[in-house]
User: Fold this.
Amino acid sequence: MGCLHAVLFLSLGSLVVGEITNKGWWKDTVFYQIYPRSFMDYNGDGVGDLKGITSKLEHFVDAGIGAVWISPIYTSPMVDFGYDIANFREIDPIFGNLADFQALTAKAKQLGIKVILDFVPNHTSDEHEWFKKSVQGIAPYDKYYVWRDGTVDDDGTRLPPNNWISVFSGPAWTFNEQRGQWYFHQFAEQQPDLNYFNTLVQSEMKNVLSFWLSLGVDGFRVDAVPHLVEVEDLTDEPLSNTPGVNPNDYPYLDHIYTKDHELTYQIIKEWKDLLDDYADSTNTDEKVLMTEAYTDLPNTMRYYDCGVQIPFNFKFIMEISNDSTAVDYKNAIETWLDNMPKTGVANWVMGNHDRSRTASRFPDRADQMTMLAMILPGVAVTYNGEEIGMTDTWISWANTQDPQACNTDPDRYEVHSRDPNRSPFQWDATKNAGFSTSATTWIPVNSNYLVLNLKQEKQDLISHYKVYQALTKLRKETVLREGEYEVKIVNNQVLAVIRTHVEGGVTEKVILLINFDNSVGKTVDLTASSIADKSAKTSVYTSNVQFRTTVGAEIDATKIQLPAKASIVLLSRSGAAHITGSIFLMIFALVIKHFLIQSD
Ligand code: GLC
Assistant:
């Protein structure tokens, strides 16, 4: 090729490539977590699968959800139900195969649903080829994991290299006879930690990201990020001195050497750059990173600085409980918003596969949590089943499967077990809630499915699902996409979240009121508390299902009655609208008059 041709080729090339499209698509999107084992079972084996998800994609359109993130679907011995990965590039047969995955993403694309995958970089399964070779000391895999020598005490008992404890309880080290060394695992012993000081490991994991990007995924939820790197000198961790903690349990130590390492942030930044470069060079939509980091606020906010668009905000999971007051909620909300970088977008995570469901954590207050997620500015994140108010399912010790609980004992397992919040999705009132045709399901279906299911909630005039749908619809309005926000406490126990948009002299507000008093009703005067002005027309948009208000009814803003535990969303409009209307009528009358005079 001659020089001129080469120049022409290059410049034409740069016209075609080099643009991330649809930047910021995620900013006002509702994200939804699919726990694939429990979402929809297509092949009738009692465990959910990819074809099941594909068969239900229309549900997301109906519910107003714009993106799904799917917990791990890769080859796995399922010790931690997919979070122990034996091959990062293959689909586990229990879920289907790559062709099924491609069918899923193709249909999602047609429907306008973005697909985010779970990326689990901290560890592999002990059945991963890398680990098997590492055990055998085969280079370069011998240095892919965190291996150390331990000590031997006077009785000849082997002791681990230090006092570190696993998140799943017990020592974070397991001795491997074949290699004659201990390996480190933040989670189950079948989940050996990768060694991120090894640049080969770093490249391997980047290649995994590129592999899935080339299959058209829209981003990644990154698992267990703060645990990625530990100090190399293996210093013992100090005691946390938290009263009442069992010495085997993770909170017994203060994890200053095994969490939030500086290198973690550098790695995350590189992954974000990789995603940007990919979108840039392929002219595709912006790719999104969501980070799962249970850590303190400053360390969480640092993910924004790395370019992460959605560093999960776990305030409603970690700091808010059923005992929290309106003031606690106000603080939780404002702490996030005030500490977020000015260019950042907030996100609100209400639940996930690791936590008790919102309807069980906050009895009679599930809709309130949905309202907060949808009305506060930014991204809303829903865990599957929360849109219909599903509750936890009690599971006996004998039937417990979660390794986090199995590592404990019959007295402690219930506080550790995540099985109850992983029961199958309740689609309808048929066998197994319409989830599976199998005789049994991997976790039992909650017995309340006969009355609590999506089909029923679609038929009911008032239901959790109807509230959810109404709110996702409202999020499309400018007032929720761009409006200012304010959080106030009224009448002591009532939290008010106010979103305001002013345009052409018209002030539009969406007002969420939540009564935190569990036994006493409250009356709120929106005008006295300067939430709405006297000329505003205020109407009911939706309320929690127990409240049963008349949607659309105009309401006297000076005395809004809120029963105990009630939450209500109001629309208020004031300003020049009616004046503009009268001016328009005057002009119209003048034109008609003029026309009549002319035609005389
Ligand atoms: C994350 C996942 C959790 C898993 C753990 C280990 O916290 O959300 O389910 O057990 O990482 O991968």
The longest helix spans residues 577-599.
